[in-house]
Design a protein that fits this description.
The protein is mostly beta strands. Helices cover 11% and strands 49% of the residues. The chain contains eight helices and 35 strands. A 13-stranded antiparallel beta sheet has the order 6-5-4-3-2-1-13-12-11-10-9-8-7. Strands 15, 16, 17, 18, 19, 20, 21, 22 and 23 form a nine-stranded mixed beta sheet that branches. A six-stranded antiparallel beta sheet has the order 14-25-24-34-35-26. It is globular and about 75 Å long. The N and C termini lie far apart (98 Å). The model is unreliable at 1-20 (pLDDT under 50).
Length: 510
């Protein structure tokens, strides 16, 4: 009898014990984020924040962030003494890499079809009583925030992409002056397998000025020319459409692939070991054809013909390949090209570089000057594929194919992927080798490709069908496409110039 009365009493009381959140109207995402901002507290106009970051790979670094209104600068200093920076100043985002080269992030033209994301709000009881705010595309990729409905704090954020779900959790909320911040954050990256812990060491109002957050100049000139020399023919060998440059390290010559698609200079791990390089900041790289282990290293001196580079920070990557009598053990990418004027002549098989300050981008009849964006230290350009605008295509001299289209383009523009198949000649799947693994593709003969002022008719390219290159880029113009041009690289001014060569005129039907 007592038991029955007790149970009945509990049942009668349940509605009163249920959190009030269940009876409230479901708020929209804007209301939720406004409450989160209010719970966090007002941010001071100027502030300094110090973060200590450690990773399961053993890498550790300190981040010091200076804020002046909407402008900021973050300094990164790792345990090996490597310094990098990033920030935003007067609307321009920027970063400075380990070799001291500053890159300003250029805005996209904004003409391409944007990815469609749908925002939904769901009431939840796990991991907290509160709300789940999801902003996802049609494949279910995007960000999901979990918000505590009583404290209005973020407790977790999920990031979903082709590899799965990465999870970041927030805890130990602490008052720092006018703001309450998560003193600890833990992130598990599904792409790399890395676990990263971030701790707020300090956050305080500070007298930060515009000079403290201004975009810095390059820390140094990485590529050194001999005195009195402004023009150099590189020791280059063309195999097919790809270019291999002889690089001297420790008195011995090594072949490196000249690769505009490489965000830096890379050395194969086996070659790094033979060179006796000390590696550090180990990580799992997942942004290429497949995931692979990578690390940083520093090379005391590298020479390319008469050009010299000292104290060069490089990354390791599996890049050994053979092409007849050429054995490539590295990639010569952004850090080498960033300060030079470069001409690639595919017809006459020559690469020439000029000292910056003595070089100007060629223009005039027959030259098409194309702006490039170098945010990720690879040149992104715009083009049209069967009339569909793509603004994130990498100009990639290291890619052996004509061009690849990634899933980001394919899922936004299925109407553009009309395959003419050249009477059935191009239909079977094709596999390519990329950094980190194999790339599964399907060939397409596309009616029109507009790149600058040139229209290519019935050109065969490839659409990636697997999970390679699952990030938000449209694709790659590779060497099989670029060989139709004399290519002039002018990274310091954010542009390249293209001049159709004899082969390109034939392909364009001229």
């Amino acid at each position: 009898m007592i038991t029955r009365v007790f149970v009945a009493s509990v049942l009668l009381l349940l509605p009163a014990l249920t959190p009030a959140i269940a009876d409230d109207p479901l708020p929209d995402s804007a209301t939720i984020y406004a409450k989160v901002a209010a719970a966090r507290g007002p941010r001071p106009h100027s502030s300094k924040e110090v973060l200590a970051v450690s990773q399961s790979s053993g890498a550790e670094w300190t981040e010091t962030r200076y804020v002046d209104g909407d402008d900021y600068r973050t300094d990164y200093l790792d345990g090996a003494g490597v310094e990098t920076q990033s920030g935003k100043y007067k609307g321009d985002s920027w970063h400075q890499n380990a070799n001291g080269q500053t890159v300003i992030h250029e805005a996209e033209p904004g003409l391409a079809t944007s990815e469609t994301y749908t925002t939904t709000v769901t009431r939840i009881s796990d991991p907290v009583a509160g709300y789940r705010v999801a902003e996802l595309n049609k494949r279910g990729w995007g960000d999901i925030d979990y918000v505590d409905g009583s404290t209005w704090r973020f407790v977790r954020t999920d990031t979903v992409d082709a590899a799965g779900t990465s999870v970041e959790t927030f805890g130990d909320f602490t008052a720092f002056g006018s703001m309450t911040l998560a003193r600890t954050r833990h992130n598990h990256d599904i792409d790399t397998g890395a676990d990263t812990t971030t701790i707020v060491k300090s956050f305080e109002s500070a007298n930060v000025t515009a000079a403290d957050v201004a975009i810095p100049s390059n820390r140094r000139q990485l590529v050194e020319f001999p005195p009195g020399i402004d023009f150099v023919n590189l020791p280059a060998t063309f195999k097919g459409n790809r270019i291999y440059v002889m690089v001297t390290i420790g008195g011995r010559g090594y072949d490196f692939l000249l690769d505009t698609g490489s965000a830096g200079i890379n050395v194969d791990p086996g070659a790094a070991a033979r060179l006796g390089l000390h590696t550090f900041n180990k990580e799992r790289n997942s942004y290429n054809a497949g995931a692979f282990d990578s690390a940083q290293a520093k090379i005391d001196t590298m020479s390319v013909g008469p050009l010299t580079m000292h104290d060069v920070y490089v990354h390791t990557a599996p890049v050994i390949e053979f092409a007849d009598d050429v054995k490539s053990v590295g990639l010569l990418g952004f850090d080498f090209l960033a300060e030079l004027g470069v001409r690639i002549d595919y017809v006459h098989k020559a690469v020439t570089v000029r000292r910056w300050g003595t070089y100007s981008t060629p223009s005039g009849p027959g030259f098409n000057v194309v702006p490039v964006r170098l945010d990720d230290e690879t040149p992104l350009v715009s083009a049209k594929i069967n009339g569909a605008t793509a603004e994130r295509i990498t100009v990639d001299t290291g890619a052996g194919t004509s061009f690849l289209l990634f899933n980001y383009f394919a899922r936004r523009h299925p109407e553009a992927l009309v395959d003419h198949k050249a009477g059935g000649l191009f239909s079977a799947p094709v596999q390519f080798e990329g950094v980190g693994g194999e790339i599964e593709t399907k060939p397409y003969e596309l009616a029109e490709i507009d790149f600058g002022s040139v229209r290519f008719i019935n050109f065969v390219g490839y659409v990636v069908t697997g999970n390679s290159y699952g990030y938000d880029e449209d694709g790659v113009f590779g060497s099989g496409f670029l060989r139709f041009y004399d290519v002039y690289l002018d990274y310091p001014n954010g542009q390249i110039a293209l001049h159709v060569n004899e082969d390109g005129q034939k392909a364009a039907g001229r």
